[in-house]
């Protein structure tokens, strides 16, 4: 009998990737959690044979019934969704609360054998207390909660997924055109860190690779349990190399230029303030 793998955020980037990776695996039966089973995205999953169940992460009782009978659960939360309206610190609280709701529901699921929690490294500990990355810390709070529940921790894998290649599709990360002296269009990417020495851990195509890592986690519990960390990393590249690669693919001339944190915050008000807050402890 196929094991039920329940996927939170099944219509999103990470959850959608997990669904695609497991869809044709006869040993697994996929259950997708969604707030609206009548949405086009949910209907598309149902047409592929995925069991679609309605639940609201903000309402723990709905999660208990949605998780019932699950062999494994993939859980992910979104920090950036409420960022613009809620702000940096309130968004942290919102994400942490959702992650704790998911963990509590998972802990109450008797059938559960494997809980894959999408988290990130502890920036505060790793930097010796110098740096706190908001969307890392909001997930780390959930990590600590999971670790306070021994029977859930024994079933948990902490999955750390690296920087998405797809992030380059967002205007913030794309080089901007300027007029050059020779009349040829030139593109510039402004960054608040050293282009040559600041390395980015890259996930590659997140739409495919997240799911492949999760499948490997589920297929090899002897390596990924209890309470172990699996880092989803395909390669490392400096910011400058990343921009150069983008330029090569799109056949443009592009340069990466470092500016001060203060200037960066002026040019990109929301994201600049967010980036500056990372250094605050």
TrEMBL record:
Keyword line: NADP
NADP keyword on record: yes
UniProt-listed InterPro entries: NAD(P)-bd_dom_sf, NmrA-like, NmrA-like_oxidored
One GO location term (cellular component): nucleus
Entry annotated with the keyword NADP: yes
Domain NmrA-like: 2-270
Domain of life: Eukaryota
Family to which this protein belongs: Belongs to the NmrA-type oxidoreductase family.
Record-given protein name: NmrA-like domain-containing protein
Species the sequence originates in: Bionectria ochroleuca
């Amino acid at each position: 009998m196929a094991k039920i793998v329940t996927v939170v955020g099944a219509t999103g980037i990470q959850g959608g990737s997990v669904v695609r990776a497991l869809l044709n695996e006869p040993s697994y039966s996929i259950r997708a959690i969604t707030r609206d089973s009548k949405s086009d995205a949910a209907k598309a999953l149902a047409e592929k044979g995925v069991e679609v169940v309605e639940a609201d992460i903000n309402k723990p009782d709905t999660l208990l019934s949605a998780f019932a009978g699950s062999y494994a659960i993939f859980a992910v939360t979104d920090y950036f969704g409420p960022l613009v309206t809620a702000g940096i610190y309130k968004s942290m609280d919102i994400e942490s609360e959702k992650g704790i709701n998911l963990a509590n529901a998972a802990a109450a699921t008797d059938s559960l054998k494997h809980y894959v929690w999408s988290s990130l490294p502890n920036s505060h500990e790793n930097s010796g207390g110098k740096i706190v990355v908001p969307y890392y810390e909001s997930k780390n709070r959930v990590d600590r909660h999971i670790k306070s529940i021994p029977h859930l921790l024994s079933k948990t894998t902490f999955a750390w997924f690296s920087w998405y290649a797809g992030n380059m599709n967002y205007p913030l990360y794309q080089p901007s055109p300027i007029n050059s002296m020779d009349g040829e269009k030139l593109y510039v990417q402004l960054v608040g860190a050293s282009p040559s020495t600041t390395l980015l851990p890259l996930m590659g195509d997140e739409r495919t690779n997240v799911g492949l890592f999760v499948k490997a986690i589920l297929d090899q519990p002897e390596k990924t349990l209890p309470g172990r960390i699996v880092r989803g990393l395909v390669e490392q590249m400096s910011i400058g190399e990343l921009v150069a690669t983008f330029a090569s693919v799109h056949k443009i001339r592009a340069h990466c230029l470092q500016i001060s944190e203060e200037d960066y915050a002026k040019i990109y008000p929301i994201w600049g303030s967010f980036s500056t807050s990372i250094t605050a402890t």
